[in-house]
Specification:
The protein is α/β, with parallel strands linked by helices. Helix content is 21%, strand content 25%. The strands form 2 sheets. Strands 1, 2, 3, 4, 20 and 21 form a 6-stranded antiparallel β-sheet that branches. Helix 1 crosses helix 3 and helix 2 (104-119) packs antiparallel against helix 3. The chain is elongated and about 155 Å long.
Length: 512
């Protein structure tokens, strides 16, 4: 009987334990489920935040790429700040192509506009496209947000250029830019305060500071060891309407002389009033049809190009020239250096010449010894045959004869006409002069002047090479190669990329 009572009591005890156990298991399952839900919600929030941050960083990266692209199309602006030094140097904030520029930036933009228009005769929209790019960089200086789509935005906070003392670079451009990402569209893109995204819990905003080396660059014509065959400032390269014309500024080509070398035009900056539109009659286009390549091709072929590089200054006329070699008038044949001219210690024979005017049967012959040079400083016009033929002699080349013309008479149209059938090897620099060549004689060297082929009766025969490029920069008595620091800059690869808090004062940034 006792055994039955014990079994009965045990059975009743088990019935009382099942309910609490079931409740406990249910509670455990409920807590586990809630934990999983909360973790999932936390993970989801984390994913949303990560995506927002990634989107804002992507916006910054896109913004940096766009600013770089704009600067690459208007590279002169890489040397100027976006919002400072506006009155003295010029800045992006007042960047504009104007007729009478007052700041360095506007002067550079005017030259670039002219170079763009003159270098693209087949693309009438090239200059207009350049102005659009300038306007875009101008707009960036307002610090307003620019929409990228999908509720993503960027804005340029500032761009500063610091000049460098290093010879291999112009300076450093530091671009500060912010990116944003929102779940809803922004309605006011002018707001830049720290709390502008308080209405959007999933918004993200970041700031990057990018350092870009700004490097010097030279146009191809000035990067070679030889100087350009022809460098002119205006007009066509043969007189329109005459036999053998080569019109640089017109689509009408009728034969004419060619140039085996680089043909460069610069300094043409004439505009219509009141806008900055190039005058329709301005002849500034250079045709590559008139460039003859050498029989042995160059790694970089000769080009015809318009550059925004001004002419260098003429070398000063020496004051120590011997009396018998001063103020000469050459109207008959002669040979230089003359037997009575003393050999200078430098090996450079120098002469000042009032003018040269020779009849058809007269010529000036240049015959310096090996390693010696003859330099003429000419005050007036040159008309006649000049012969300088090295004929393979060692130590002799076109650089052994150099002619610099100054137009000290103040003529409105000074001229240099090279005549005759003899070979001439020389370097001629006459910034104010009309240049021309007639006769069958070859001209090896370089000719720089105001224009070529505009002298009546002094036109090159059809299809002849008027000038063959052959003077070395190192031959010149003065370094006339343009300074790369004053030419069109180029952007180097990004040197430093740094993120910083958006509330960092611009003058206290640690991103250097």
């Amino acid at each position: 009987m006792n055994n039955r009572l014990c079994l009965h009591l045990m059975a009743n005890k088990e019935k009382g334990f099942a309910l609490p156990l079931a409740v406990l298991i249910g509670l455990i399952l409920m807590v586990t489920g809630m934990t999983m839900i909360m973790r999932a919600q936390g993970d989801q929030s984390k994913v949303i935040a990560q995506k927002a941050r990634a989107d804002s960083l992507t916006s910054s990266e896109v913004g940096v790429a766009r600013v770089q692209d704009l600067l690459n199309s208007v590279r002169v602006m890489a040397k100027f700040d976006s919002n400072s030094n506006c009155t003295t140097d010029g800045c992006w904030q007042n960047a504009e192509v104007v007729t009478n520029p007052s700041t360095d930036l506007r002067k550079d933009l005017k030259k670039l506009y002219t170079a763009t228009a003159c270098s693209n005769p087949g693309d009438p929209n090239a200059a207009a496209t350049l102005e659009e790019r300038i306007d875009e960089l101008n707009d960036l200086s307002a610090n307003e947000w620019i929409a990228l789509g999908n509720n993503r935005y960027y804005r340029m906070v500032q761009y500063n250029f610091t000049a460098s003392i290093d010879a291999d670079r112009l300076g450093l451009g530091v671009l500060t830019l912010e990116g944003r990402s929102r779940t809803s569209a922004e309605t006011d893109l002018t707001q830049t305060g720290l709390d502008i995204d308080s209405d959007d819990n999933a918004a993200s905003r970041n700031r990057v500071v990018v350092s870009i080396p700004i490097l010097p660059s030279l146009p191809l014509a000035f990067a070679r060891t030889t100087v350009p065959a022809l460098w002119i400032r205006e007009g066509a390269t043969e007189n329109a309407g005459q036999t053998g014309q080569i019109t640089v500024g017109s689509a009408d080509y009728s034969g004419g002389a060619q140039f085996q070398g680089d043909v460069v035009m610069s300094d043409t900056t004439t505009f219509d009033e009141p806008t900055a539109t190039l005058q329709p009659e301005l002849e500034c286009f250079i045709s590559t049809d008139k460039i003859e390549q050498p029989t042995t091709p160059l790694n970089t072929p000769y080009e015809a190009q318009f550059v925004d590089v001004p002419f260098p200054s003429l070398p000063p006329i020496p004051t120590s020239i011997p009396p018998g070699q001063e103020n000469m008038v050459l109207t008959s044949s002669g040979t230089f250096p003359r037997p009575e001219d003393p050999l200078p210690p430098s090996g450079v024979y120098e002469y000042t010449v009032d003018y040269i005017d020779l009849s058809d049967d007269e010529e000036i012959t240049i015959n310096p010894g090996p390693g010696q040079q003859v330099v003429f400083y000419v005050k007036g016009n040159i008309n006649g045959a000049i012969r300088h033929n090295c004929d393979g002699e060692a130590g002799c080349g076109p650089g052994n004869l150099q002619i610099y013309a100054y137009n000290l008479s103040g003529s409105d149209d000074p001229q240099i006409c090279l005549r005759g059938d003899e070979e001439l090897e020389a370097f001629i620099f006459a910034p104010a002069y009309s240049l021309g060549k007639t006769g069958t004689g070859d001209f090896f060297g370089a000719a720089w002047g105001r224009k070529w082929g505009k002298i009546p009766g002094c036109v090159s025969p059809d299809d002849d090479v008027a000038v063959t490029q052959r003077v070395e920069w190192t031959d010149l008595i003065q370094d006339l190669r343009p300074n790369p620091l004053n030419t069109l800059p180029q952007l180097g690869q990004i040197a430093n990329w740094c993120e910083e808090p958006i509330d960092t004062p611009l003058d206290e940034s640690d991103c250097d």
